[in-house]
Amino acid sequence: xxxxxxxxxxxxxxxxxxxxxxxxxxxxxxxxxxxxxxxxxxxxxxxxxxxxxxxxxxxxxxxxxxxxxxxxxxxxxxxxxxxxxxxxxxxxxxxxxxxxxxxxxxxxxxxxxxxxxxxxxxxxxxxxxxxxxxxxxxxxxxxxxxxxxxxxxxxxxxxxxxxxxxxxxxxxxxxxxxxxxxxxxxxxxxxxxxxxxxxxxxxxxxxxxxxxxxxxxxxxxxxxxxxxxxxxxxxxxxxxxxxxxxxxxxxxxxxxxxxxxxxxxxxxxxxxxxxxxxxxxxxxxxxxxxxxxxxxxxxxxxxxxxxxxxxxxxxxxxxxxxxxxxxxxxxxxxxxxxxxxxxxxxxxxxxxxxxxxxxxxxxxxxxxxxxxxxxxxxxxxxxxxxxxxxxxxxxxxxxxxxxxxxxxxxxxxxxxxxxxxxxxxxxxxxxxxxxxxxxxxxxxxxxxxxxxxxxxxxxxxxxxxxxxxxxxxxxxxxxxxxxxxxxxxxxxxxxxxxxxxxxxxxxxxxxxxxxxxxxxxxxxxxxxxxxxxxxxxxxxxxxxxxxxxxxxxxxxxxxxxxxxxxxxxxxxxxxxxxxxxxxxxxxxxxxxxxxxxxxxxxxxxxxxxxxxxx
Length: 614
Ligand code: M6R
Hints:
Layout: E1 3-8, H1 13-24, E2 31-38, E3 41-48, H2 51-60, E4 68-74, E5 89-90, E6 96-104, H3 107-116, H4 127-139, H5 144-152, E7 157-165, E8 168-177, E9 182-185, E10 190-193, E11 205-208, E12 213-217, E13 222-226, E14 231-232, E15 235-238, H6 254-260, H7 262-270, H8 289-293, E16 297-302, H9 304-321, E17 325-329, H10 330-333, E18 344-350, H11 356-367, E19 371-376, H12 382-385, E20 389-392, H13 405-425, H14 430-441, H15 443-451, H16 454-463, E21 469-474, H17 478-493, E22 496-501, E23 518-522, H18 529-544, E24 548-554, E25 566-570, H19 579-596
Parallel strand pairs: 16-17, 16-18, 18-19, 19-20, 21-22, 21-23, 23-24, 24-25
Antiparallel strand pairs: 1-4, 1-10, 2-3, 2-4, 5-6, 6-7, 7-8, 8-12, 9-10, 9-11, 11-15, 12-13, 13-14
Bound molecules: 5-amino-5-deoxy-1-O-phosphono-D-mannitol.
């Protein structure tokens, strides 16, 4: 949820840390802070609000030069987002500074213990408790690494802790459990970050850490141990994108840039998936053909946009493989005692690979002996590491809080999984699979043509500036698209928006329709006659009650024109692939309407990109 940076090297730590925080700000922007090791003491500054507030505070009261430091950008959990609760937190003697991501569940008990010893805590946070415990350890004469091992072992919950000791400029020490942290490996310098964006301009060599590990970085090296001090090792990897991928590249928002990157992202996620013989090949598929043949049920778990990708996947997997699929919100999954065994494949979809609800759900599934396959965008993240197999999305970094290219590439990965299962189980002929892959390979060009119509969608969005409530309708694979369109509008424009299966409307929600209310309708392709006809009936029903209908329909669909106040054309593709195109105008619509309303599209209120708490 929060963004964390640590640095030790030859450069000015303040510059490295602030730049790292800028790249991580999408993870949380309730407050920001920095701590530097300064000649036997800690120099620190923190401010509520966005990073710009911290930068202004530093400009007004400059920090001393230092080559060792840590920083934090916060998404508030414990305590209001004010200056006092902002990180870093210092021990009472101001010797240790600590930043934290996650929730320390036993903090009340630890706090009571500390206060009983007459130590005064200034903030409402769980973090200050850990800072105080750490400082008490180093004050007893041990080094920061040993102190971190001892403290981390006492904590319950999910946490990444990163700390510096004012008496020891040589090291930055971190601990992680159920919360993200990666090491950036430099030359004469090393880095810590919640994700690689924190240090991508300095190095693309990274070290993935395991669960319950403590890592110490110095200028010359990196040492990893367990919480018990036993030696451990991380996994080295090279980041396959560079700094330019983490820049806006002339766009006003990362989100807009990422929408326009979708043709390339989809093409990249399809790249290298076919063998010389034309067979589908998934390199990171660590499940054997026999294990896949044994699967008799699939449960997809995910949150938010990823959940809607999972809903689309259900249609594709069931249609192409005839394996029954359930789709479930990760946060609900383990609490209903799901029926799982070795023949159930659990598919966890997560762009970040760090979503705590999904992580806990896959752990539950593996305890029940089910195999878990992750669909993920982030190399080095926890969910693929803890899964039996993974399909990487290859979308490149997604920085806008609202997922866009993440959704499209999740869909591609789901289609590939469905086709791969069909190939292994023999539920589709090889030439059928090839035909679908070829249709997928045409999608990037189709997205380009949808994007070419962006100006008209922007104009439409601006015309809806006064809208108080917007409905989205779809059927079949268009239903999750409607849900996704509504989510985009809610999270960016803060407008009440709801997505419905069009056939369900008459069972209640149609009561919401008022004169002039915008209703966006995802119309199924003409080839699916029954579906198409039923959708048209739904549109007629809302028009009869005064709705302003904005219809997304394929080229050549002449029957829709009389029912649409505004008609947005989509290239003709099979119904199962239509979500890849239909969602794009909805993304553009939400982005532009939010922009026109003066909202910060990349950092919508109350949200953070990666939700690492349950
Ligand atoms: O990283 P994940 O895919 O696991 O994230 C899941 C959701 O938190 C995410 O899709 C969220 O709903 C986005 N803000 C949607 O735009």
